[in-house]
Amino acid sequence: MKKIVILLALLLCTTPVFAATTSNIAKETEIQTRIDSVAVKLLNHNKITKRIIFTYDKKEKKKALSTDKALTKRQVIIYDGLYQHIQTDDELAAMLAREIATAMKSYDGSFGGWIDSAQVALGSKKFETVSDKRAVDYLVNAGYNPLAVIIFINKTCPQKRHDTFSRHNLTSKRLARVYEYITYKYPQYLENNEYINNEYYQNFLLTSVENRKKLAEKIKAKATKDIDYE
Amino acid sequence: MNKLFATFLSLAFLTLPTYGIEMAPIPEVEAIETEEMVTEEVKDLPYNFESTYKVPIKLGIITPITTKGETLYEGQVLQFKVLQDTYCKRKTFLKKGTIINGRIETLISTGMNGFPAEIIISNFEIPGAKPSQLVDTYTKKGQNRCYIVYPIKWALTIIPFVGSLTNLIKGGHAKIKAKDEIVIYYYPEWK
Lengths: 230, 191
Description:
The structure holds two protein chains of two kinds. Chain A is mainly α. Chain A has one domain (about 1-220). Chain A is built from eleven helices and two strands, in the order αβαβααααααααα. Chain A has helices at about 1-45, 70, 80-85, 90-105, 110-120, 125-140, 145-155, 170-185, 190, 200-205, 210-220; strands at about 55, 75-80. A two-stranded parallel sheet of chain A has the order 1-2. In chain A, strand 1 (about 55), helix 2 and strand 2 form a beta-alpha-beta unit. Chain A starts with a helix and ends in a 9-residue tail after the last helix. Chain B is an alpha+beta fold. Chain B has helices at about 1-25, 25-45, 145-155; strands at about 55-60, 65, 75-80, 85-90, 90-95, 100-110, 120-125, 135, 140, 175, 180-185. At the A-B interface, helix 1, helix 5, helix 6 and helix 8 of A face helix 1 and strand 6 of B.
């Protein structure tokens, strides 16, 4: 009798596990569907004639020494650690658009894009800015608000002390460049700013006072030279 | 032992089909919902890429440009002229010499290790064509010197620090000359 009770208890224990797994699968499917929906909208509205796929990964972040699959396989991996920062579709589009820009570079150039991919990987500082700017264009073309790029970067990228010997730009510089890009190319989004009451956007405004001042001076002087942002 | 086996079997029979019944309808319902959603989305889509009929439009820049000297900026409007008469379904669509505006989308400056500069032009304003009917992104790169830089760098690696000197070699500037032919595509049957 004891054995029967133990067996029954064991079998009952399996039920919540099964339920939890089903719930997780449903959640992951929902996330994957959301990602695919936004991604395909970006691809179609921008008339991107190359194939790129998008995969949600439960892992927190990419392994340090693994290759960027956006460059090698044209497969954009969205890690859960980053996805957790995403609130609106605009922000999701901002994240995906950056990756699309990177994947698109892998289609250019000699040896099936191999050389250009290597250059993007090695010179990531330069192409980081390019991806940010292209992401803004992709968002505008697909009907998303490009200011979401600022919010996405502001939320997810840490501020290092310096970038002289780094393969990445200072986040404050990236944000300032994106803001400048939007100011010149898509000023309508700043004039009718939907994000003015967004706390994350306000935080960007607060932390970018000096850089925005430099931009205001550039506009006033009608200069074309690149600003040395902080 | 027999009792144990019988209990296990009966429990398995009782519980497993229940899971089966619970699980089975879910994909069906989801499938129906997805089908409905897709049908709904297709109706409202602002584009339809079904047609493969395209008209190439050949353009040439009026004033040559270069990334050298920081005279260009993103968002700058450039003027192009149509290089030859363009026909769409046996009717003249664009006459030779028609002036067309295009916009600099992104500029990539030259970089160390032979990275070339790049000009990306898009948003061409073609009379009689909607932007959604154009595949109109044109990219012009400068000379990619990494083909020289990397072999030299690797060859010099045996002497400490010398290989790193090749980092200082910059890529070529991107230039669009008057004689360069820019081809964009017009898909008249797209929405």
